[in-house]
Amino acid sequence: MKYVDEFRDPAPAQALLARIGRAARRPIRLMEFCGTHTHAIFHHGLRQLLPPQVTLLSGPGCPVCVTAAGDLDRAISLAGLPGVTLATFGDMMRVPGSHGSLQAARAGGADVRVIYSSLDALDLARRNPERTVILLGVGFETTTPTVAAALVQAATEGLTNFRVYALHKLTPPATAAILQAGEVALDGILAPGHVSTIIGADAWQFVPRQFGLPVTVAGFEPLDILQAIADLVEQHEAGRAAVHNLYPRVVRPGGNPTALALMARVFTPAVADWRGLGEVPASGLVLAEEFRRFDAWPLLVEHGLDRIQAREPASCRCGDVLRGAVAPPQCPLFGRVCTPERPIGPCMVSSEGSCAAYYRYADAVPERKDS
User: Fold this and answer.
1) Using one digit for the tens of pLDDT, what is the confidence trace for 71-117?
2) Nearest to 95 by CA among 303, 350, 290, 269
3) pLDDT digits 0-9 by tens, 325-334
């Protein structure tokens, strides 16, 4: 119980662990979708505390990681066009593409700016009317409304030099794709708290309805996660499959109606390419007709960049990790040639990546230089 001792008051954690131990009478495999959950689980040593019959698998909950290599290559190519300023959040800078990264492109002379909000990109467009400012829109439902708000503001102001390269992803279709594939046998889903704040707990009703699996929406404190695991184990043992919201202080059944309405106005669901999953129907977002003039895709077509053929890093198993098919240490590159300092795949770059979590917190990493 060495990890429990790190809690300010270990009694609640001990009670939840005892509850899980009593309920888990047979093996159970649970998947957390959210990368923040993954890192919280590792940071607090929750895997080591759970009884051996409870297995936690990490899913495609890192938006940086699931961005397909081809989409990243096209973003890097956009940054290299004359007169273009590419605005991106910092976690995309070091993600390796087929032939470099946005960070390398900036070092080579491309105008790539790190921003902290979508409104920063709007401000760049206002202050640089002679340049085309392209916002790289990456993220799940949590960040998509902020990009939608920026597009509404751009339309209100009549900005003509602002565009968005929309690579947003929707989490429920990806979850359905993993469950439909059947590659990984699962007994329950730990639903992402941040995403569920926007889409609502009811958005996960398709999981018990179509797949007969329980879903629990959880927060990110260790007790939140342990409580959710206990709930999933108890549902599994009782043969129940329902959606339980254990994060009611933030998540409502119907989500955030204002954010959902904004997304529905600005974006339209479309097929999207996911690293590790391939093309998933209705799992991406493209600009609706009202905002099509802000779309960066025509620039790609104009310069012949829409036909880029991407190349995945040799031997990198990031895609398998994102599906939960393998754990990061099963990748031959993990901890040897692929480290946070010199990442080969995106799962080692992002703060939400599973490989980064394993590398930072796991007890045994092969040939670690800092151990």
Assistant:
1) 999 999 999 999 999 999 998 999 999 889 999 999 999 999 999 99
2) 350
3) 999 999 999 9
CA 156 to chain centre: 30
The contacts of residue 299 (CB under 8 Å, 6+ apart) are 78, 81, 84, 132, 134, 163, 305
Asked whether the CA dihedral 113, 118, 122, 127 is positive or negative, the reply is: negative
C-alpha distances (whole Å) from 188 to each of 165, 174, 224, 229 are: 34, 15, 16, 9
Residue 180 placed within a domain: yes
Neighbours of 49 (CB within 10 A): 21
Token pair, residue 20, equals 């899980």
Query: Coil, strand, or helix at residue 160?
Result: coil
What are the tokens at 101? 């990264």
333 and 209 both lie in a single domain: no
In the numeric block, the tokens 């599906």 are attached to 323
282's tokens: 């209705």
**Any long-range contacts for 48-52 (C-beta under 8 Å, 24+ apart)?**
48/3, 49/1, 49/3, 49/4, 49/13, 49/17, 50/17, 50/20, 50/229, 51/20, 51/21, 51/24
Q: How far apart are CA 71 and CA 88, in angstroms?
A: 14
The total number of structural domains that make up the chain: 2
Q: How far apart are CA 263 and CA 142, in angstroms?
A: 11
- Whole-prediction pTM: 0.91
Are residues 166 and 242 part of one domain? yes
Residues forming beta bridges with residue 270, ordered by sequence position: 284
Amino acid at residue number 222: P
Q: Using CB atoms within 10 A of its CB, is residue 306 exposed (0-12), middle (13-18) or buried (19+)?
A: middle
Containing domain of residue 347, as a range?
A: 318-360
In-domain check, residue 16:
no
Helix 10-23 with 222-238: angle, nearest 10 deg: 20
